[in-house]
Structure formats: structure tokens, C-alpha cells
Amino acid sequence: MDKNIVIIGAGFAGMWSALSAARLAFLHHRHDIKVTVIAPQPALCIRPRLYESNPAALTSPLLPLFAATDIHFISASVTHIDNAAHTLSYSDKNGLDQIQSYDKLILASGSRINRASIAGAEAFAFDIDQAVSADRFDNHLQALGSQPDSVARNTFVVCGGGLTGIELATELPDRAHAALGAGTNVKVIVVDRGSEPGSQFGAEMRQIIAQASDELGVEWRLNSSVEEVRADGVLLSSGEFISSLSVVLAAGVNASSLTTQIDAPRDRRGRLHVDDNLKVEGQDDIYATGDVARAACDDEGRVALMSCQHAIAQGKFAGNNAAAALLGITPLPYRQPGYVTCVDLGAWGAVFTETWEQNVKAVREEGKGIKRSITHELILPPAAEREAAFRQADPLAPFV
Ligand SMILES: Cc1cc2nc3c(=O)[nH]c(=O)nc-3n(C[C@H](O)[C@H](O)[C@H](O)COP(=O)(O)OP(=O)(O)OC[C@H]3O[C@@H](n4cnc5c(N)ncnc54)[C@H](O)[C@@H]3O)c2cc1C
Fold first, then answer.
1. What is the pTM of this model?
2. Which of 291, 317, 358, 375 to mutate to test ligand 1, by most ligand atoms within 8 A of the CB atom?
């Protein structure tokens, strides 16, 4: 009888899990091992680029790649996981409930911004967390051009000064001027709890982020948090009210809620604790990878971040190890000691760092070139050609 490896999610972790599992089964001539991906869309959303304009275009089709590598795809959203029965449920495209059984399950359903935690955010805030919400913000930005000139129209408030908030805020002056006219007095304000711009980054990087913000005219409200988002602006914990028609949340991501259906310890962001092979603690047949996994990434006690670079590598290990378990061969422990950061800083350029200490290696145009090669090439799906895709899906193939 066929053995089923089922992967929930077609993001970075899910796509690479599927390719890596299919690769190992292929290398062992095991045509009875079937790899199936279930996700709403047969496309990879390039989430790290959703701060850019025209986010609707930032997806790469996956069906040709899956066809070339014998990976089955079901277009659906999983609603329920039954650990004991080894099944999961989803509604098919006709709205009918379907059950899919699995021998090994890989959970790769990513993360979502938590909009409910801030008063008024559900109703009045934008976000750029998913393609749909980033597209909604982009449409709003374009539509502002037909509204009367006002301070609220021209002011953009980004709530959260982490990587996503910084990339959006530094890109916004250009995007807003394109929509509202070059001569418009655009204001971009980042609200952040930290005591200096980019407080989560290393000292050298913080200086660069502050310098880029100054040059681009991006303001920071530091030691501050958002109390309430309203239709006409945002109230800060300091009592300041900023008039704005465009308040964008860029903080507070939690692991997909499917993690709550698996009986295992989770961290404060909802990520499932996994062992070195990315198997969920206490579960024999369930793996977690990418933003849903809390995984050790080196022997120094570091834990992988909710990031694309970790999701890609983890996907390759999770898929390999799920297939290895069915094949009865030794799994490969996940390790990813290398770490780079590349932050886009809009018209200023970008900053690229290496190591966890974030040693700055390139800035401005040079940094921007590296950023472009990462987001426009390195993280894209491989070509729809089996040999090349399987070569890249090898967990031990060089990557960051
Ligand atoms: C604006 C922005 C900028 C970013 N910048 C960077 C960056 O510069 N560098 C970096 O490393 N990371 C960055 N990230 C983070 C990075 O995008 C994520 O860490 C990465 O996408 C996680 O990959 P994943 O495969 O775990 O999840 P995702 O890429 O989110 O994929 C999840 C998949 O699961 C599917 N799914 C969800 N729920 C279900 C369900 N119920 N049933 C079936 N399928 C489901 C989704 O449709 C999707 O296919 C950024 C994120 C954002 C939003």
C-alpha cells in the first residue's frame, strides 16, 4: 500500500519539504511513497517582498515544479488535524468536506500577524503580512491620490520597528510620492517600544538605520506603543494622537493556529517544540518546519528565527527526515549555524550583515544589490526540472 507524506502549506518551508521528501523517495526508487501538498494556492507567496508596491504580483507558480517532481497538490485550507486517526480535514473547491490520511505529516502553515491584540486594529489598521492584506494596503495607497490633500491623508504610521516595519517605512516615502504626487508633504512615522531605531539589531546596524531614517525623513516615536487605532488616526501610549488614514501594523506575528491542534509544547509565539530532526516533541509522525517550529539551529543554544532563510533550510531537513522515517534510514539533524541579515532601506539602499553579531558587510547600493539577488533570485522556487530541483532540495547542499 502507498505511504503518504502530507505537507500543510506551500510557503518556503512547505515547498522545500515536499521537494526534499520527493527527492529522497526518488533516490531510493520508492514509487510507493506519495508526497502531497495541501495549501489554498498552488503558488509561493514571496512574503519578504510584501512591503513593495504591487504585492499582488509577488507569487511564483508551483504546479509545473510539482508536476516535474511527482508531488501531488490539493488546493484547500486544512481545518482539522486528528493526531490519533492520522487524518486531516479540509473543504475542497466545491465546499465539500474531505478527509486526507497521512503516514507522516509535515506542518508548514507559517504565521499570521496578530491584529486582535490592539484596540481598533481589526477595523482600521492595514498590514502587509499576507499577499491579500498587502494588496489591500497597496490599493488604499493608490486610492489616496483621489482624496483631498490633508495631513491625515499624507501621514503614514507604521506600528512596529522590526525588520518588516523598517523595510515598509523606508520604502513608503517613494511609494507615497508616486501615489500622491512628487511635491506632497509626506510624513512617515514608525512607532516602536525600543529606545532607538532598530533596537533589535546590533550597534552598527542601528546607526545605519538611524542614518537612513534621517536621510529619508522617516520619524520614530520611541519607547512608545499603540493604544488604539481609529478611523482617523492612532492613539499612542504617551497620549499623543497622530492623524492618519494609513496605520499599518508590522509587529506581533504568531504561528499558524493549526499548531494548537497538535498535543505538544509550544513557545510564546505558538511555535511547536521540535527535536533535532524537526519532529514535534512527543509525536512520532508529525514534523513542524518554518514559522510553526521552535527549532535549535546550532550547538550554541540559538533558536531559529521566524524567517525565510530558516524556513527554507528547515523545509529541506523536515521533508528529508519524514521520508527517511518511512525508508527506515538515519535522519539528518537540522543545523544552520550561518546567519545573514539584509534590510532594505528604500531609496537609501540596504544593509547586509553576516553572523549573529551582525557584522556589516555592505551598505547603500552594494547592499541593495545583495538584497535584490536574495529576494529576486535566491529564495524563488527552483526551475521546474527534476534534477536541478532535487539537487537544491538536498539538505546538505550549500545555502546560507
Ligand atoms: C513583509 C515581510 C517581510 C519579511 N522579510 C523577511 C526577510 O527580509 N528575511 C527573512 O528571512 N524573512 C522575512 N520575512 C519572514 C518570512 O516571510 C517568513 O518567515 C517565511 O515566509 C516563513 O515561511 P513558512 O513557509 O514557514 O510560512 P509561509 O511562507 O507563511 O507559508 C505558509 C503556507 O501555509 C499555507 N497555509 C496557512 N494556513 C493553512 C491551512 N490552514 N491549510 C493549508 N495551508 C495553509 C499558506 O497559504 C502558505 O502557503 C518577512 C515577512 C513579511 C510578512
1. 0.98
2. 291
